[in-house]
């Protein structure tokens, strides 16, 4: 029987790549984000390849929107087995430029969004005494980089939350928790960097190495969710080879 996976931030990048990989491997995917047109395009692509996808317009910063989306998915597919907490943003800047609005947006999406989605999905996983939560942290959740301080703070928070979830939920409900820590992945993430200095830095980095693709991260997630029920892949740290870290 197909497992049901909800993927937040599925309208581009890692989320879209993960949706394609999971759908190609027999999972039914709930693809969630704000841009419903992009989700419908992805749904068509998955359907044409023989997979099954359900598009959900969702803003992860709004607990009601998340709850409604999860209910829609469960109504369509009967249950939910896997949550991929992937939605996130990274508008880099120096702390001293005080882009407080950008800091707050990162906290709202990268941290509160993960908490909202987890809270909406957890009752179903507890009820069935199984499930898997995949959190998208980062190489920036292992080390602080200049210009990424607030982003790093959000990704360190996700690493900590993943450990706490695993500690509390794995022994009691057999719910597995995986923290994914990618290096550089070629996605729209870099398009939202407002500071030209950091945009240039990222463009230079892209010239120095072949970035990962969303599908590469999707394959890491597929590995974690395909293990037998008694195996918890706790962390996946996956980098472009040339990032050499
Ligand atoms: O970026 P991008 P990635 N509610 O911009 C969605 C982490 N990561 O795939 O709502 C719901 O292509 C947005 O959808 P939309 C990174 O921190 C990346 O690279 O339609 N969804 C879009 O689908 C992030 O956690 C790299 O605009 C919201 C998605 O988020 C995750 O990977 C390295 C939303 C962003 O897709 C995916 O990022 C690393 C909201 N309020 C970690 N706001 C990397 N790319 O190098 C945004 O270590 N979204």
Descriptive notes:
The protein has a single domain, classed as NAD(P)-binding Rossmann-like Domain (Rossmann fold), CATH 3.40.50. The longest helix has 29 residues. Strand 1, helix 1 and strand 2 form a beta-alpha-beta unit. Helices cover 49% and strands 16% of the residues. It starts with a strand and ends in a 7-residue tail after the last strand. The chain contains seven helices and seven strands, in the order E-H-E-H-E-H-E-H-E-H-E-H-H-E. A seven-stranded parallel β-sheet has the order 3-2-1-4-5-6-7, sandwiched between helices. With 245 residues, the protein is α/β, with parallel strands linked by helices. The chain is globular, with a radius of gyration of 17 Å. Bound molecules: 5-hydroxy-NICOTINAMIDE-ADENINE-DINUCLEOTIDE PHOSPHATE. The site of 5-hydroxy-NICOTINAMIDE-ADENINE-DINUCLEOTIDE PHOSPHATE has 33 residues, from helix 1.
Which segments are poorly predicted (pLDDT under 50) over 5 or more consecutive residues?
A: none
Helix content: 40-55%
Average predicted confidence as pLDDT: 97
The best one-word shape is: globular
Report the count of strand segments.
Answer: 7
């Amino acid at each position: 029987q197909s497992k049901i996976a909800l993927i937040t931030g599925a309208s581009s990048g890692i989320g879209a790549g993960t949706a394609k990989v999971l759908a190609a491997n027999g999972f039914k995917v709930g693809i969630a984000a704000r841009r419903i047109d992009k989700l419908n395009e992805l749904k068509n692509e998955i359907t044409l390849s023989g997979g099954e996808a359900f598009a959900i317009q969702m803003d992860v910063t709004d607990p009601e929107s998340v709850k409604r989306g999860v209910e829609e998915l469960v109504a369509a597919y009967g249950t939910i087995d896997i949550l991929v907490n992937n939605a996130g943003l990274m508008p880099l800047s120096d702390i001293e430029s005080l882009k407080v609005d950008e800091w707050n947006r990162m906290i709202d999406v990268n941290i509160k969004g993960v908490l909202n989605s987890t809270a909406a999905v957890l009752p179903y996983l507890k009820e069935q005494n199984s499930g898997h939560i995949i959190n998208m942290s980062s190489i920036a959740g292992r080390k602080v980089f200049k210009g990424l301080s607030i982003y790093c703070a959000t990704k360190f928070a996700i690493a900590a939350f993943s450990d706490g979830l695993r500690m509390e939920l794995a022994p009691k409900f057999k719910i597995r928790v995986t923290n994914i820590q990618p290096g550089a992945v070629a996605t729209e993430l870099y398009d939202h960097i407002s500071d030209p200095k950091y945009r240039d830095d990222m463009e230079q980095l892209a010239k120095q190495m072949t970035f990962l693709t969303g599908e590469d991260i999707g394959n890491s997630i597929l590995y974690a969710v395909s293990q037998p029920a008694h195996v918890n892949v706790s962390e996946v740290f996956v980098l472009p080879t040339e990032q050499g870290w």
